């Protein structure tokens, strides 16, 4: 019981900090996307491709969450945008306080989109609000079609679902219909984009989604 | 600081229960394997194939950890062995107390191997001893070759490393040499078995490893 209470306190403290972040992001008309997935579903590759495709029309930055190494931040920097690496050590997710801690390194007045790439984990990140406008959940075809039923909390948190590595489908037993049926049971309202980030297949709807979200954010701030 | 202390207390309580489990498993000469991986790396498929291949020569049971559903236990039962499902809800790993809670459902006197399939997660399960003889870590080729450097705690905990879904390698940019170099930096002593459980490639060394572990366990208990 004591542990449950502590957990509740941690979450309520996180929510408080996240609410503060959300106010800052609103003031700055900055679209913030919290990107979640299992390890190796293709988050960093998707952000690299996005930075290269949209970097000339949108001002982009990224915060990269990993237990160790700054490899992901390095990859994103090579794609031409500013990236800050947070190492969580043994920590299984980013929290709002970690985001607040690195914000001073970003020029928020001169940004349109901030991607937060969470630690690769389909469980813990779902419980922690980072003040984002939307959570984007990536699932790779190689992970199997049973993930929505088995990891519902991540799907419930998600505002957009990306089914990635679709180029691998012919070599796996992934059934798109089973996947869609399971998604519909957990979160019927969600939009699913099907793509292969590595092979640059199906990226256009993703770019359009980001651009419309940026436009919405700017509009809501100027009202 | 208070949270860190609570976390230490949780882990020390877990270690105490795990030590008790380890004594029970030793008395019963029962080999216990804690199987870890990201979501969708192929743990359940490997256990299905193992149950079918070794079920006639070894007495096998499985404990399946998932947030929700009893799909994995159902799959294992269809392969002909007893399987108990633990649903963790929002919990990101199994702990020793959960294992202790379901042990009465197993006839420990008539078992040679107990597989514990942990929740799909490359972070949290690494911190919780379940009283196992060995931790087996699965990584799928589709997850990329950078996992050892980015998730070192799981690799440090592992006693055996399984590189799965090798049949997908031609369709990915996975580099076996980079993977091996990263593994060698984190845990140079570890044995790596390369396989495709789905395609039943490279399973024989895995079966032999289990059989030799069972023999060792029986021998150490009769000394």
Concise description?
Chain A has 223 residues and is an alpha/beta fold. The first copy, chain A, is built from eight helices and seven strands, in the order H-E-H-E-H-E-H-E-E-H-H-E-H-E-H.
Polypeptide structure, described:
The structure is a homodimer of 223-residue chains. Chain A has helices at 2-27, 43-54, 71-78, 96-102, 147-150, 152-157, 176-186, 204-222, and strands at residues 31-36, 60-66, 82-87, 113-117, 134-140, 160-164, 191-194. The mean pLDDT of chain A is 96. In chain A, α3 links the parallel β2 (60-66) and β3 (82-87). By secondary structure, chain A is an alpha/beta fold. A 7-stranded parallel β-sheet of chain A has the order 3-2-4-1-5-6-7, with helices on both faces. The longest helix of chain A has 26 residues, at 2-27. The first copy, chain A, has 8 helices and 7 strands, in the order αβαβαβαββααβαβα. Helices cover 42% and strands 18% of the residues of chain A. Chain A binds chain B through residues 2-3, 6, 10, 38-41, 66-69, 71-72, 90-92, 119-124, 126-127, 140, 142-144, 146-147, 149-153, 165, 167-168, 171-173, 198, and chain B through 2-3, 6, 10, 38-41, 66-69, 71-72, 90-92, 119-124, 126-127, 140, 142-144, 146-147, 149-153, 165, 167-168, 171-173, 198.
What attributes characterize this protein structure?
homodimer, 223 residues, alpha/beta, seven-stranded parallel beta sheet, 8 helices
The secondary-structure element order of chain A is HEHEHEHEEHHEHEH
Please give the share of residues in helix of chain A.
40-55%
Strand order of the biggest β-sheet of chain A: 3-2-4-1-5-6-7
Question: How many beta-strand elements of chain A?
Answer: 7
Shape annotation of chain A: globular
- Report the average pLDDT across residues of chain A: 96
Largest interface: A-B, 43 and 43 residues
How much of the polypeptide of chain A forms β-strand, as a percent range? Answer: 15-25%
Give the helix/strand class of chain A. Answer: alpha/beta
Unreliable stretches of chain A: none
The major β-sheet of chain A equals: 7 strands, parallel
Rg of chain A (C-alpha, Å): 17 Å
**Spatial separation of the terminal alpha carbons of chain A:** 46 Å
The quaternary organization reads as homodimer
